[in-house]
Amino acid sequence: MGTVLIVYASRAEETKGIAELIGEGIRLSGHEVCLKRANEIKNEEDLKGYDGYAFGSATYHGEMITSMKQILFMAERAELKGKPGGAFGAYGWSGEAQKRLFDTMHHIYGMQMVSGPLMLKASWVEGGIEDAQQYGTSIAALI
Ligand SMILES: Cc1cc2nc3c(=O)[nH]c(=O)nc-3n(C[C@H](O)[C@H](O)[C@H](O)COP(=O)(O)O)c2cc1C
User: pLDDT at residue 124 above 90?
Assistant: First the structure.
């Protein structure tokens, strides 16, 4: 059994809801979850040592939320190479945050990523609950 760290940045709490559903999928797969809001992570030590990672941010003004951007700098020193990973978040129309998170985890940290980012307009849109839980299952399957 492993533990997956889920870190999210959310303003209107849609991305938080998606994070919780991803966590459910991971738990249903028999693994543990540590769920943190981005501003709870203070340095790279807070990121080290997990068996998998999911980073999430909503998109605002074509970008991820600043607290998640700061985590991406800490994560460079968190020994994430080869670790299972996924990226997610709520968006309205363009979803830059989710794509940027996913690409950074893949290209910069060298993580073993699931097939693509999970982008939902909200957790409650049709099929959203199942999609988010399934995304958690996919991350867990890489452990
Ligand atoms: C001021 C503002 C700017 C936004 N800018 C974008 C944007 O550039 N691209 C996009 O896809 N969605 C954009 N959105 C939509 C949000 O990403 C969407 O409402 C999302 O559900 C918010 O997630 P959260 O509840 O986790 O904060 C914007 C929303 C607001 C209120």
Answer: no
**CA–CA dist 98, 91 (Å, integer):** 8
Ligand 1 first shell, C-beta below 6 A: 10-15, 58-62, 90-95, 122
- Regarding the domain delimited by 3-141, which CATH topology (the fold level of the hierarchy) does it fall under? Rossmann fold (3.40.50)
Nearest to 88, CA basis, from 112, 65, 58: 58
Ligand 1: residue of 18, 20, 60, 68 to mutate (most ligand atoms within 8 A of CB) is 60
Residue 70 has pLDDT above 90, yes or no: yes
Token pair for 47: 């990121």
Alpha carbon distance, N-terminus to C-terminus of the chain: 9
Domain layout of the chain by residue ranges: 3-141
* Predicted local confidence at residue 125, as pLDDT: 87
pLDDT at 126 over 90: no
